[in-house]
Amino acid sequence: MKKKKRILASVTAVVCTFGLLTSCSASKADDGSTVSGDTEANTNASGDEFKYGHITIPGKDGSLCSAPIYIAYENGYFAEQGFDVELISADFETRKIGLNNGTIPIVNGDFQFFPSIENGIDVKVVDGLHEGCIKFAVRPDSDIYTVNDLKGKKIAVDEIGGTPHQTASLLLENAGISADPTDGEVTFLPYSDGNLEFEALFNGEVDVAAVWDPLGSVKEKAGEVRIIFDLSTDDFFKDHFCCFLYASDKLLKENPQEISDLLAAYRKAQEWIYENPEEAVDIITTKNHSAIEDKELAVELIKSYGYPSASEHGGEWDNKVKDNVQYFVDGLAQIGYLKSDPKEFAEELYYKVDVN
User: Fold this and answer.
1) 310 shares a domain with 211
2) Residue among 16, 210, 193, 26 at smallest CA distance from 108
C-alpha cells in the first residue's frame, strides 16, 4: 500500500513519544476518572506462603474487557497459583520498563504493541485474551455511514498512538485512505477520556468519536449516537483477538513456570466468565472495577468478547493465538506499520507456554 516508509516513520515516532499499549490497560475508569492501585493484595485462602511472593499487574483500568484480571483477582485464582497480586495503574513507559526488567511479569494489550516490540521492547505474546471492545460513533444526523465516508473528517481518539487511533489507521489504510497525518486525508484529535470525545462530537469539533466500551454502547442505547464501526463485528477484525497477553522475556527465560502459572490463573478466569457472565458483572461492578451502571448491557458486552470455554483452551487454542499473531502482523506489514519479514517476525513475536 502507498507511502509505507513514510507511514512507518510516523508510527515509529508516535510509539516512541506516546506509548501504544493503552487499550485494555488504560489508566482511566469508564467514567473518565483516574483509578489508583489497590493497597490490599489477595490473600492465600489456605494460609500457605505465596510461592512467587508479591507481584504487581497493571489492572486498574476500569474497562470491561479487563474482566479476566478482575475475576482472577477477586476469585482467588492468582493466589491459588502462588501469587500475592497487587493491581496497579501503569502507563506505557512503566509497563515497558517493568516487562524489560521482569518486575512486571505480564500485561494485556493489543496488536498495536507489535511495532514497539519490533523496535526493541523485550516481550513476547504468550496468549490471547478476548475479542472486540472498540466502537466508532457519529451523531445520528451525520452523513458518515462507512469507512469510505471518513476522508476529510476529524476523528476523536483517547491518544495519538493509542489503540482506537491505530485501529482507525488500519481500517483507513485498508480502505485506501491515508492515515498519515502529513497527507491531510483525515485528522486525529486526542482527548483525555471518552466523555470529552463525546462532548467534542456533540458540539461539532469532531465528526467521529473512537471510544472504548462501554461508553459507545451506552450512548447508542440511549439513542444519542449511531455506531459506524464495531471491532467485534467488522469483517477484518471480527473473530480475532483485540487483546493479547504479553510476558516478560526475561522471566520466560529465567522462570518459565511462573508465566505458566500466571496464564493458568488467567485461563481459569476466562473460563469462569464464559460460564458465569452475569456473576462476573456483579463482581466487577460491586468491587468497583468498572463504573458501568447498566448491568444488562454489561453482560451483553462481556458475552460479545468471546472469552473461551475450558473445551476451547483444551483444543487448538495455542494455534489460534499463533494464527492471530500472524494475521495482525500481516495486516500491519501490508500498510507499512512493520518493516520486518512478516513470517519471521510473527515466529519471533509469539512464545508458546505450556500451561498446566
Assistant:
1) no
2) 26
Query: How many Cβ atoms sit within 10 Å of the Cβ of residue 330?
Result: 14
Pick the last residue of a domain from 201, 230, 259: 230
Residues 93 and 16 grouped into a single domain: yes
Residues 6+ apart with CB under 8 A from 85: 41, 42, 54, 55, 56, 57, 72, 73, 78, 79
**CA atoms of 106 and 277, how far apart (whole Å):** 24
pLDDT of residue 19: 37
**311 SS3 class:** helix
Do 14 and 124 share a domain, yes or no? yes
pTM assigned to the model: 0.81
Contact assessment for residue 160 and residue 212, using Cβ atoms and an 8 Å cutoff: no
Q: Virtual CA dihedral for 250, 254, 260, 265, nearest 10 degrees? A: -70
Q: Which segments of the chain have a pLDDT < 50?
A: 1-42
